[in-house]
Amino acid sequence: MIMKKRFTAGIFMSVMAAMCLGGCQGNAGTAQTTAGTVESRPAETAAGTTETAENAAKPSVSISVGVENGMADTMSKAVEQWAKLLAEKSGGSMELVLYPDSQLGSKNDLIDSMQLGENVITIADGAFLAEYGAPDLGILYGPYLFDNWDQVWKLVDSAWFEEQDAKLGENGLKVIAANWKLGERNLFLVEPMEHPEDLKGRKIRVPSNQVQIEETNAIGATATPMAAGEVYQALQTKTIDGLENVNSALLSMRWCEVAKYVYEDEHVYNMAIWVGGTSMFDSLTDEQKTWLLESAEEAGLWNNEMQDQDAQSIRDELTGEQGVTFIPCTEEDKAKLVSMCESFYANGTAYGWSEGIYETIQEIIKE
Predict the structure, then answer these.
(1) What homologous superfamily is domain 14-366 in, according to CATH?
(2) Is there a contact between 247 and 183 (Cβ–Cβ < 8 Å)?
(3) Are 256 and 186 in contact (CB under 8 A)?
(4) Three state DSSP letters for the chain
(5) Which pLDDT does position 30 carry in this prediction?
(6) Of 3, 26, 84, 98, which has the most beta carbons under 10 Å away?
(7) pLDDT by residue (tens digit) across 237-291?
């Protein structure tokens, strides 16, 4: 059952397995972990005896967290907070080891490995998860679906979302937390634009998933699937004209050095869904499951507070030191974009969505 918001084929290449498993030994120079900084306390064994502090400090469960984000990103800092919370709750018997900057591979690589039993967790939003047994989750990346964050959390807390997690479970995935805010997604451009019509023919990078490809095409741009690690050079050489993401990624990924314009259309309220494999999750004791889920939920609340606090400072740094120009999307232009996206939603069954899913979501979030 999903917790409320108030609380990755084949086997990896041997070198990858060495990074991910067995406590991620030998990777101290690259992986970022905070669990080891928490003061250890004695842990009780199954026999009811108390281990020594030295033994308790050795994690019996080590889980790798792979993300695209750099260490300067708020999300990565929040994962460090999550690691601290989990170490505290488990008495040092569980640890999270953070691998930023796509060190463990792409999201698809990580999800594939989860399904094969790797102890890995990653951010995998609805557009990705739609291709892993829960197609209706793809609508979470539908353009202009939500008006505010309260509507997002209302949907996460619904029976509908629980049903989606159950469908993922049938395909080897488990939602760990879905109450983490990433931010509103905007368009980042090499050359400025004033109105939606200006997007016609522009190559916009998107992740390799059908939903984001189709919605980008719907607004007249040309969707160009590309891995995040290839974006900087593609912008620099003008192989692409822009991309879409949250403002914090524009800064932390340094895309702002080559994409100097932000069109603030806020087309997606981007929340992060943390997923792991059902094999990993089911291997945990009930107590360990509780520690993992509760710490993820609490870290999500911490993340959301930090995201809100950092939003203005990120904007200030982008406009100041980085020389980025923010272009507002007027109400009239937003209405144009919404109208352009009607064809996207009308074609929902082609994405594998249930009949009438858009109407279902609107009923849940606006009741």
Answers:
(1) Bacterial extracellular solute-binding protein, family 7 (3.40.190.170)
(2) yes
(3) no
(4) CCCCCCCCCCCCCHHHHHHHCHHHCCCCCCCECCHHHCCCCCCECCCCCECCHHHHCCCCEEEEEECCCCCCCHHHHHHHHHHHHHHHHCCCCEEEEEECCCCCCCHHHHHHHHHCCCCEEEECCHHHHCCCCCHHHHHHHCCCCCCCHHHHHHHHCCHHHHHHHHHHHCCCEEEEEEEEEEEEEEEEECCCCCCHHHHCCCEEEECCCHHHHHHHHHCCCEEEECCHHHHHHHHHCCCCCEEEEEHHHHHHCCHHHCCCEEEEEEEEEEEEEEEEEHHHHHCCCHHHHHHHHHHHHHHHHHHHHHHHHHHHHHHHHHHCCCCCEEEECCHHHHHHHHHHCHHHHHCHHHHCCCCCHHHHHHHHHHC
(5) 44
(6) 98
(7) 999 999 999 998 899 899 999 999 999 999 999 999 999 999 999 999 999 999 9
C-alpha to C-alpha distance for 293 and 123, rounded to whole angstroms: 15
For the chain, the structural domain boundaries read 14-366
Q: What is the pTM assigned to this prediction?
A: 0.76
- At residue 49, the pLDDT reads 40
Cα–Cα distance between 246 and 265 in angstroms, integer?
Answer: 11
Answer whether 116's CB lies under 8 Å from 44's CB: no
Angle at 340 between CA 337 and CA 342, to 5 degrees: 115
Residue 63's nearest CA partner among 120, 8, 11 is: 120
Residue identified by tokens 């160009």 is 224
Query: How many other β-carbons are positioned within 10 Å of the β-carbon of residue 67?
Result: 24
Q: What is the largest CA-CA distance in the chain?
A: 70
Amino acid of residue 132: Y
pLDDT given for residue 209 in this prediction: 80
Q: Phi-psi category of 323—alpha, beta or left, where left has phi over 0 and alpha has psi -120 to 50?
A: left
